[in-house]
Design brief:
about 325 residues, alpha+beta, D-Maltodextrin-Binding Protein, domain 2, binds 6-O-phosphono-beta-D-fructofuranose, binds manganese (II) ion
């Protein structure tokens, strides 16, 4: 029997990681085909339940999670953690890797034909699943995401830059298109869900106020805004042309630490962004220096063009009750 062709060229992946990364690519290529069927295929956007830790579950969330889990035996993965599962599962006691995934990111966009994705993070496995995943993001050995958009792309890092691949739908292989993705340090475009404006922490409100103040405000110019509501799609845009993304903490009881999850959303995105020359923080502290307190723990997330992420941190340095008065009054915040 002929071996199945690989879904990514082995030369681009460190050898111990190849079976796992190849399996992720193979399943992602299959998901890409399924998603492209839209309403001609099985219904993917139906509500099927909740995750038990605060998110809706759509049919495609479950399909993706089960497909990835089923592909992992024999790939060197010891523990698999997923947004769709309460706890991590044991795949193979001999495995050396711990894989965390958001199998289907942006699931509110499935039915509306807007880009969605898959995010993953790999650590070296330790004795327990907890010890494997609840550690600083800087200890990741690989991270990546797949975006299912007009074309399907993969951004991948092993800590030596960020690689950009595009899925060839004919061969079902991800082909390298860019060896060293680099995002611009400066930007005039921000992404945030402004409907939460009145509930945001003050430093974020002050930062956005200053961006919106236009020619006569402290930024002395205008900003553009985007909000897709798929983290992978915002990340892809920012890696392509720069920008800043913010999902801050807000007053809603479940959102004090924002919405996004440290282990399988924020840490891998931060790794990919930093390897492309950008920055990622929780507002002030680098995401990669932080450890999650629990598998599904949230953290505020600010990432993108380095100058802008650094600027957001300066607003967080101000005392809470003074920060809203920055507007127009401080030389530090000009331009
Ligand atoms: O996975 C969570 C997620 O869907 C992200 O992809 C996206 O950035 C965010 O939530 C959108 O949140 P909201 O619906 O609050 O704008
Ligand atoms: Mn997600």
């Amino acid at each position: 029997m002929l071996a199945e062709p690989s879904a990514i060229d082995a030369r681009h992946v460190p050898e111990p990681l190849f079976p796992a990364v190849n399996a992720i690519c193979r399943i992602s290529a299959g998901l890409s085909a399924k998603i492209a069927q839209g309403p001609l295929g099985q219904s993917l956007g139906d509500h099927v339940g909740g995750t038990g830790h605060g998110d809706d579950q759509k049919a495609l969330d479950v399909i993706a999670d089960e497909a990835f889990a089923a592909a992992l035996p024999g790939t060197g993965v010891r523990y698999y953690a997923s947004e769709e599962r309460e706890t991590a599962i044991d795949i193979d006691p001999e495995g050396r890797l711990a894989l965390a995934m958001d199998p289907l990111d942006g699931s509110s966009n499935i039915d509306v034909n807007v880009s969605i994705g898959t995010i993953f993070s790999i650590f070296e496995a330790r004795e327990t699943a907890e010890a494997s995943f609840l550690r600083p993001g800087s200890e990741q050995i690989a991270a990546g995401y797949v975006i299912y958009g007009p074309h399907t792309a993969l951004m991948l890092t092993f800590g030596k830059g960020t690689l950009h691949f595009v899925l060839d739908r004919q061969t079902r292989r991800f082909e390298l298109v860019e060896q060293a993705v680099s995002l611009p340090a400066r930007t005039r475009e921000f992404a945030i869900n402004t409907s939460n404006y009145s509930r945001w922490v003050k430093p974020v409100r002050a930062y956005v106020d200053d961006c919106l103040a236009g020619e006569n405000g402290p930024r002395q110019g205008t900003f553009n805004m985007r909000w897709i509501a798929s983290l992978v799609a915002e990340t892809h845009r920012i890696l392509t042309r720069g920008g800043i993304f913010l999902y801050p903490g807000d007053e809603r009881p479940a959102y004090r630490q924002g919405r996004l999850r440290m282990v399988y959303e924020c840490a891998p995105i931060a790794f990919i962004i930093e390897q492309a020359g950008g920055r990622a923080t929780d507002g002030s502290t680098p995401i990669l220096s932080k450890s999650a307190s629990a598998l599904h723990a949230r953290t505020p997330l600010v990432f993108g063009s380095s100058n802008e992420v650094t600027r957001v941190a300066t607003y967080h340095d101000e005392p809470e009750d003074e920060v809203s008065a920055l507007f127009g009054s401080r030389g530090l915040f000009r331009a």
